[in-house]
Amino acid sequence: MQRMNRRQWLGRVGSIALGSVAVTSCGRPEVTSEVEVVSPRIADAYEPISQIDCVACDNCMPCPYGINIPGNLIFVDQARYRGYLPGALDDPDFASKVDTFFDRFQNSIPDPAQAQHCISCGQCLPMCPDHIDIPRRMAQITALTDLIRNLRCLKK
């Protein structure tokens, strides 16, 4: 089996949510508040993330793709608890929260263990005692981080 990250997988098989949009970080550190100028496919793929309540039992580990599943899920719940998890795109504080969220996410979870590498294989699903839909939650986290990457690229 050839290992590939989520973006490579989506590019190969296509995606209803993201299509063939190439999402890359252009290295610009600021975020624009002009959310409406982001690719509609990226914006449509994003939905505010509700509380996950992972207890970090590690039953879902190891992930065959090297993703730190509990680390990603707990990071999001901690971001919500500490007040820097971005909500809806039209929230007035969305743009102010994305920098904090993304910078802490990048510093907390190494890239190979981040949610965007999930290909939704589902091997983790039967292992979760709390019946968390892990592939869906990984897709939500990926949609948020992809949106933030695009916002950063738009800022000139």
- Compute the number of helices: 5
Major sheet: none
**Residues in β-strands, percent:** under 5%
What coarse outline follows from CA principal-axis ratios?
Answer: globular
Q: How many DSSP-defined strands?
A: 0
- List the secondary-structure elements in sequence, H or E: HHHHH
Overall pLDDT = 79
**Spatial extent as radius of gyration:** 15 Å
Please describe the structure with a list of short key phrases separated by commas or semicolons.
single chain; mainly alpha; about 160 residues; 5 helices; about 40% helix
Can you describe this structure in just a few lines?
This protein has 156 residues and is an all-alpha fold. It contains five helices and no strands. Helix 3 crosses helix 5 (134-154).
Polypeptide structure, described:
This protein is mainly alpha-helical and 156 residues long. 41% of the residues lie in helices and 0% in strands. It has five helices and no strands. The chain has helices at 6-13, 40-45, 69-82, 94-108, 134-154. Mean pLDDT is 79; it is low at 13-25 and 27-33.
